């Protein structure tokens, strides 16, 4: 049977990744299914519940979700030889999942906006009153990790979110919605994942992206093998491939920051070492998820 | 020959069991499986916890209010169009009713975005008029009223279609008798036309209400910024944080939606109970009202509505497909057709998606016509006490958000089928099955209301002519309810053609649908491609409708809803 | 073809009053039964039970040996080989006139030349050849009724049910159609049941006449018999245009009364005496000569003659015919040549 | 109330043959016009134009000074204050019988006690008090027709249009309803137009009778006049049950012919001679005595009498009545007491 990949990467990216892998491993055929993280997870969980999961490999947004899968024993521990080239914080010590790239969340703004923000705190200033939008952690995995990350920064914390709320910021939908709101000029500022505004800017959209001074949060699009996989060997080769230099170059070409050490950054990004990535512990984050969501909802009045 | 004796039932013996098992297999079984999956939650304290969450209740209340007022708006708009285009001497009926089909074809999220764009700070229209609100000003559409309004816009064509068939069956002489009794056109409308077309109005209202209950795209875009959750968006956000309780949670939330649907059905039954709509001695002639000096204003109003509902969002869609990136102002310089090029010639998925969706929509539409006629016949002519339960079972899947249906279908069909040993999971057939379950209610409603209006003597005459059940079904019943059957086919086709949430979880490599393709493009930031594909879908529907127009002469009278 | 037997037939629509109540009736093979009765007495309901559209609440229907309906079940209408003209016509609005008429043939698998010939024939009998391609909605009331007629007679049914099939036709067509029924009946030997309000029609066509009232069957007899010897006040009042006089019984032993019998009882009635009902038909009330004096209280021109209402000295009303005009208030002398004790 | 004038009225449904063709007719204030004619001749169409449901293709309709319809436009039906019994009844299936009947009152703003009283009254006249809460679908054909009647008579319309209002009623109800019409007419003074196939009904009720055929108006006259002096073959054949004999003209100058005139022409007809049409009604054909020999070729029992068809020696057919039964094939002698030259 073909190797089945469930991924939340955008279409073209998923196709490129699969194409790259198949070129490197002509004996393996890959079927892939692409959808937003919540949907792909719903599908997978339903399959697991029905006792017949179709996926072999997962390549989805964040480590917190992977951690949850791991704790439910759905993931296969595999020690990839490529792990050596990665920062230990970027993969699970038991080998259940490996980060493949860095997708940071920073600030985008419409070029027509009066203020040019440089740090997170700027969004709480009076100039930005009523002009800020951000994705909701309830809809977007990246947004949840972002909130959990900023909440852990002493200078920001949940107080920062309270200040934003008081300043008329809204939290809704996913990153795409933020991009549209800012690009169309409905809002001036948004918290958003890096690659979207950078790509759009290149296409001529009136937007800018900044990596705020305090640092950015990152999701790392980890890859993992399902413990139920009947294609474990091929799956392992897939994991090795995405972690390999070749695979990482592929991500680079698509406009993502590779997770592997010693790789360059894509065009439009500042140098890798100038980007300050704020740390997060997946296991702790997972444990705190419910409480954090409650806190967030408490502040923004969502549920 | 005493063995010939049967109960005086006018239907073959297999019919009721067939309908019941169809409904049981496709509607009841998946939902039961979902409940079973969440059963531990249901019986642990978790269900109670869930019901104690104020968020759940406010979502339930929001769902009810938005769907209710959305239904009111849809009935108002759709009813106005149906009355004006079937009964009044409005000019340009053909074009008006042709175009009025199309708003359903614009995906809800696109419709919502277009409206936000139209009325927000970046609105080209408002900018041109110099009354665009400043950046960051509150968006009035981000409210319960806004959601309800868009439900109204999105679902008005459904009401129009459901009502139209009923209006066509109105007895002309009944209207004439009322006129001669001295009733002004307004009173005739109120006392005769509306009550007589009540089955159609209620069918349309029910479709509109239930569509609102299950809608995800509009509250996602208009509700979330204002922290207004409805049950579908709540379910969706629960799915986002997938945990051990998720199935239980969505089972509980789905049950709430199911209860709403059943309650709606009860109200509907109550409204229709004890009344008789059988048109005695159906004449086949239809009535018209001369509007006189009201005609021009009414026409202008209809066109204005159509402009707001269809033309403006469609232009938003077209312009989004022509600019290279979101937020770029469309001008001759920035416009490019590269998105179409990409979609048509480079993306192979487009072709697959068109083929899949056409296959799915066509098969569902015609399959459900057959089943809808059979089930409708059972429900209206049958004497069984179980018909009420049966129609509730049919109603619920349509009311549930597509994602719940698809989770339920994955639960049932992910494992190989017993006995056969093959699995339909991962093939197009599972999507088809889910469509059958989801849209049965839509296909059924117009047919049921048409059957309610039918004079039973017409069928009796056929029976006495010796026509067996199948004969009279084909020769008498189906042609007589042809307008409703046409409506049913077109409704189901339109809805399943750009359906998203059911197929979202059920598709796999090679079985993408148009809805999935558009969503995926949009979700991954290629708005231009998504818009281009949406435009192409609308154009495809227009082409299909024109083809239908060409065949219209060979179809029974009234089947094609934009012809009079 | 066989005898059609209704046995203790009842039908209750659940309105409290049964629409048909304990009707037992044998219609002999190839019989032509006219069913008479006031509006709402259950005639249509009886036909509908025979056709199989309604299940009897009680009783049974047999066609020869074959049970069509009883407590255990019913034969569905499509298996009964009957034909019917519906009171509301029940034409199919989506079919042309020709297709309406030809449908029973089509169902029986007749097609091609034979089909066309039969349809044309049927349309010719009802004088609608020119309307074959019209839709029912574009026809006049009488034309619709004729289409229903043609559809009913196009096949060879065992039983033909006619529910006021000529109500909307003019006299000429009516006569023609009566002729058609007679021929059809003679040719096909079908059992025919004919509901009508027109007694002349019923008498002229039927071999048997049944009279119903309020769901019950009152009398079944041949036309001449039922006209000459009606049983009971109800039938007597219903058949013909007569009036019913209440006269002293006083040992009358014959049912046929003559002028002397009547006269004797007319002039010397005492209250308290046992009385009897006597039916007097207008054609038996002769004006002129030396009869009883009476006053003309109503005159209706009927074309052929005048229908008079007369008041006798003691206030009793009579009906009579006159070839010449009378004026209201005129005084005349009347003789009653015959009466029938009910 | 005022005179109703139809002026050169035409209606073409686009079928090639006009349904109504150049009909001009004055109906005097408070007149009661019976409209007779074969099925499909355009009677309903005339009523529908008067009511305002159809726009005349040509011609105009006036009520007194008021133009109801002409080339420039039409007054909508709701402004005409007319009432109609539809041939198809046109009851509203979603309303009860009482609500159907009361609707014209409701529209006129009558409510409360007065409404109830009027509705109950109207239902009583048609003998449907007990059915007030039923739906039309649960009524018999005749009951439906009576609801339509009650609805028509419940208000005080200027013009009442009746399209075969009694076709489905039995003789007794019919007579009662005729009485009701007469009363209503006398009380309200409304102009009434009455379409019927029953000539006795038409003659008994109407002050004027109009005869139509194939869309054209053939003759308008009082009932007695039109019966006694019909104009032309068509009217002659339509009114009454007579037969039309073609006799040699041979210098006949009077239109009333007697036995001698007829006899002379009956026995010595030569082909080639100019001929005339003579209407002979069955009541003028007397059996017995020393008349011409004839053979009985048809006998129909009609209850009151037998309707005979007779064949004269030269093959001509006659109709006659007989109080006693005859047998087919019997030879009789006939005298024709009167004939009318058409
Ligand atoms: N809507 C229509 N379209 C075309 N032809 C019609 C229409 N309505 C009636 N006709 C034709 O017009 C002629 C007159 O019809 P109308 O209904 O006036 O007849 P009528 O005198 O009332 O007959 P009847 O006694 O049978 O009711 C008929 O030949 C009929 O076929
Ligand atoms: N569907 C029904 N539900 C309830 N009552 C009914 C129904 N159909 C008929 N009836 C009642 O049953 C009685 C008999 O009706 P039926 O139609 O048999 O009368 P009928 O003799 O045909 O009268 P008509 O001469 O007026 O057509 C009537 O009183 C009628 O009101
Ligand atoms: Mg009847
Ligand atoms: Mg007519």
UniProtKB/TrEMBL annotation, chain B:
Q: Where is the ABC transmembrane type-1 domain?
A: 60-268, 354-548
Membrane-topology annotation of the record: Multi-pass membrane protein
Which chain regions cross the lipid bilayer?
A: 61-87, 94-116, 141-163, 196-222, 242-265, 300-323, 354-377, 398-417, 423-444, 473-495, 529-548
One GO biological process term: transmembrane transport
Report the superkingdom from the record: Bacteria
Q: Where does it localize?
A: Cell inner membrane; Cell membrane
Q: Which UniProt keywords apply?
A: Cell inner membrane, Cell membrane, Membrane, Transmembrane, Transmembrane helix, Transport
Main subcellular localisation: membrane
Record's InterPro entries? MetI-like (IPR000515), MetI-like_sf (IPR035906)
Its GO CC terms? plasma membrane
Can you tell me which family this protein belongs to? Belongs to the binding-protein-dependent transport system permease family.
Q: What is this protein called?
A: ABC transmembrane type-1 domain-containing protein
From TrEMBL, chains C, D:
Establish whether keyword Ribonucleoprotein is in the entry: no
Q: Specify whether Translocase is a keyword of the entry.
A: yes
A GO MF term: ATP hydrolysis activity
Q: Please list the coiled coil stretches.
A: none
A cellular component annotation (GO) from this entry:
ATP-binding cassette (ABC) transporter complex, substrate-binding subunit-containing
SUPFAM superfamilies documented for this protein: MOP-like, P-loop containing nucleoside triphosphate hydrolases
- Pfam families, per database record: ABC_tran, TOBE_2
- UniProt xrefs under SMART domains: AAA
The annotated topology with respect to the bilayer is: Peripheral membrane protein
Localized where? Answer: Cell inner membrane
Protein keywords: ATP-binding, Cell membrane, Membrane, Nucleotide-binding, Translocase, Transport
Q: Where in this chain does the record put each ABC transporter domain? A: 4-239
Domain of life where this protein originates: Bacteria
Please give the InterPro entries that the UniProt record associates with this protein.
Answer: AAA+_ATPase, ABC_transporter-like_ATP-bd, ABC_transporter-like_CS, ABC_transpr_MalK/UgpC-like, Mo/tungstate-bd_C_term_dom, P-loop_NTPase, Transp-assoc_OB_typ2
Report the family membership.
Answer: Belongs to the ABC transporter superfamily.
Its recorded name reads ABC transporter domain-containing protein
Provenance organism: Ciceribacter selenitireducens ATCC BAA-1503
Q: What is the lineage of its organism?
A: Bacteria, Pseudomonadati, Pseudomonadota, Alphaproteobacteria, Hyphomicrobiales
């Amino acid at each position: 049977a073909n190797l089945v990949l469930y991924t939340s990467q955008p279409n073209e990216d998923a196709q490129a990744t699969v194409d790259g892998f198949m070129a490197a491993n002509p004996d393996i055929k890959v079927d892939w299914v692409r959808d937003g993280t919540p949907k792909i997870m719903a599908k997978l969980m339903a399959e697991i519940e029905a006792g017949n999961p179709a996926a072999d490999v997962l390549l989805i947004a964040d480590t917190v979700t992977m951690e949850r899968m791991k704790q439910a024993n759905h993931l296969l521990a595999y020690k990839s030889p490529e792990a050596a080239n990665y920062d230990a914080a970027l993969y699970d010590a038991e080998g259940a999942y490996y980060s493949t790239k860095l997708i940071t969340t920073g600030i985008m703004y419409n070029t027509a906006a009066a203020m040019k923000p440089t740090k997170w705190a700027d969004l709480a200033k009076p100039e930005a009153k009523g002009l800020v939008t951000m994705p909701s952690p309830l809809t977007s995995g990246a947004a949840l990790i972002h909130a959990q990350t900023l909440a852990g920064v002493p200078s920001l914390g949940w107080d920062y979110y309270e200040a934003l709320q008081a300043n008329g910021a809204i939290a809704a939908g996913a990153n795409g919605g933020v991009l549209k709101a800012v690009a169309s000029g409905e809002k001036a500022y948004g918290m958003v994942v890096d690659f979207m505004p950078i790509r759009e800017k290149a296409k001529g959209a009136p937007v800018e992206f900044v990596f705020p001074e305090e640092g950015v949060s990152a999701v790392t699009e980890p890859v993992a093998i399902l413990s139920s996989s009947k294609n474990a060997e091929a799956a392992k080769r897939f994991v090795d491939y995405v972690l390999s230099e070749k695979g990482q170059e592929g991500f680079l070409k698509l406009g993502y920051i590779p997770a592997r050490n010693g790789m360059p950054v894509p065009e439009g990004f500042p140098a890798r070492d100038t980007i300050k990535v704020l740390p997060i512990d997946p296991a702790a984050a997972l444990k705190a998820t419910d409480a954090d969501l409650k806190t967030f909802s408490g502040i923004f009045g969502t549920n | 020959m005493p063995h010939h004796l049967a109960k005086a039932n006018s239907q073959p013996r297999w019919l009721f069991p067939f309908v019941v098992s169809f409904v049981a297999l496709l509607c009841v079984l998946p939902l039961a499986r979902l409940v079973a999956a969440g059963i531990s939650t249901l019986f642990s304290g978790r269900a109670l916890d869930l019901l104690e969450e104020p968020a759940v209740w406010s979502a339930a209340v929001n769902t009810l209010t938005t769907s209710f007022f959305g239904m009111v708006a849809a009935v108002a708009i759709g009813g106005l169009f149906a009355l004006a285009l079937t009964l009044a001497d409005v000019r340009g009926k053909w074009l008006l009713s042709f175009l009025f089909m199309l708003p359903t074809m614009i995906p809800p999220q696109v419709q919502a975005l277009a409206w936000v764009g139209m009325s927000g700070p970046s609105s080209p229209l408002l900018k041109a008029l110099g009354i665009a609100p400043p950046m960051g000003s509150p968006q009035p559409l981000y409210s319960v009223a806004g959601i309800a309004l868009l439900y109204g816009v999105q679902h008005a064509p459904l009401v129009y279609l459901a009502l139209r068939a009923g209006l066509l069956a109105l007895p002309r002489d009944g209207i004439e008798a009322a006129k001669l009794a001295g009733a002004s056109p307004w009173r005739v409308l109120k006392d005769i036309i509306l009550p007589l077309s009540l089955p159609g109005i209620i069918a349309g209202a029910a479709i509109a209400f239930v569509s609102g209950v299950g809608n995800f795209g509009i509250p996602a875009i208009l509700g979330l910024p204002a922290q207004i959750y409805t049950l579908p968006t709540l379910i969706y956000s629960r799915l986002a944080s997938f945990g051990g309780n998720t199935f239980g949670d969505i089972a509980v939330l789905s049950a709430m939606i199911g209860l709403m649907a059943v309650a709606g059905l009860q109200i509907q039954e109550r409204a229709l109970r004890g009344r008789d709509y059988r048109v005695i001695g159906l004449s086949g002639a239809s009535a018209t009202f001369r509007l006189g000096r009201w005609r021009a204003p009414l026409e202008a109003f209809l066109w204005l509505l159509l402009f707001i509902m269809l033309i403006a969002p469609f232009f938003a869609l077209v312009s989004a497909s022509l600019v290279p990136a979101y937020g770029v102002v469309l001008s001759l310089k920035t416009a490019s057709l590269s998105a179409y090029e990409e979609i048509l010639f480079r993306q192979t998925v487009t072709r697959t998606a068109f083929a899949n969706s056409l296959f799915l929509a066509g098969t569902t539409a015609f399959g459900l016509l057959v089943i809808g006629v059979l089930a409708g016949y059972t429900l209206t002519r049958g004497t069984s006490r179980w018909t009420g339960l049966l129609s509730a079972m049919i109603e619920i899947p349509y009311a549930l958000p597509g994602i719940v249906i698809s989770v339920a279908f994955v639960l049932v069909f992910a494992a190989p089928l017993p006995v056969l040993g093959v699995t339909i999971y991962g093939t197009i057939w599972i999507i088809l099955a889910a469509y059958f379950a989801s849209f049965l209610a839509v296909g059924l409603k117009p047919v049921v209301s048409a059957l309610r209006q039918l004079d039973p003597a017409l069928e009796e005459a056929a029976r006495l002519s010796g026509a067996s059940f199948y004969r009279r079904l084909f020769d008498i019943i189906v042609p007589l309810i042809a307008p409703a059957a046409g409506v049913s086919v077109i409704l189901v086709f339109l809805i399943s053609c750009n359906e998203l949430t059911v197929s979202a979880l059920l598709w796999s490599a090679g079985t993408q649908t148009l809805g999935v393709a558009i969503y995926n493009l949009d979700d991954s930031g290629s708005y231009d491609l998504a818009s281009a594909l949406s435009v192409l879908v609308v154009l495809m529907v227009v082409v299909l409708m024109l083809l239908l127009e060409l065949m219209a002469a060979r179809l029974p009278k009234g089947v094609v809803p934009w012809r009079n | 073809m066989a005898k059609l037997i209704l046995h203790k037939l009842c039908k209750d629509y659940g309105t409290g009053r049964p629409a048909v109540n304990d009707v037992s009736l044998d219609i002999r093979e190839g019989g032509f039964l006219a069913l008479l009765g006031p509006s709402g007495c259950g005639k249509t309901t009886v036909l509908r039970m025979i056709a199989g559209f309604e299940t009897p609440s009680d009783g049974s229907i047999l066609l020869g040996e074959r049970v069509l309906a009883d407590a255990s079940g019913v034969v569905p209408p499509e298996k009964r080989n009957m034909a019917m003209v519906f009171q509301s016509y029940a034409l199919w609005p989506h079919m042309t006139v020709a297709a309406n008429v030809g449908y029973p043939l089509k169902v029986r698998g007749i097609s091609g030349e034979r089909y066309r010939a039969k349809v044309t024939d049927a349309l010719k009998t009802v004088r609608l050849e020119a309307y074959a391609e019209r839709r029912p909605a574009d026809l006049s009331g009488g034309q619709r009724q004729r289409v229903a007629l043609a559809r009913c007679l196009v096949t060879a049914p065992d039983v033909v049910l006619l529910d006021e099939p000529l109500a909307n036709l003019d006299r000429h067509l009516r006569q023609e159609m009566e002729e058609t029924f007679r021929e059809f009946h003679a040719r096909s030997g079908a059992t025919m049941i004919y509901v009508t309000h027109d007694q002349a029609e019923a008498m002229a066509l039927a071999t048997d006449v049944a009279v119903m009232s309020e769901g019950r069957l009152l009398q079944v007899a041949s036309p001449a018999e039922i006209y000459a010897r009606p049983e009971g006040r109800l039938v007597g009042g219903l058949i013909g245009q007569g009036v019913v006089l209440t006269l002293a019984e006083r040992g009358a032993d014959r049912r046929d009364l003559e002028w002397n019998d009547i006269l004797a009882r007319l002039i010397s009635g005492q209250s308290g005496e046992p009385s009897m009902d006597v039916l007097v038909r207008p054609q038996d009330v002769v004006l002129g000569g030396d009869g009883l004096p009476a006053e003309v209280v109503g005159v209706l021109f009927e074309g052929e003659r005048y229908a008079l209402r007369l008041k006798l000295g003691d206030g009793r009303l009579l009906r009579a015919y006159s070839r010449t005009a009378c004026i209201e208030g005129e005084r005349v002398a009347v003789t009653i040549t015959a009466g029938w004790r009910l």
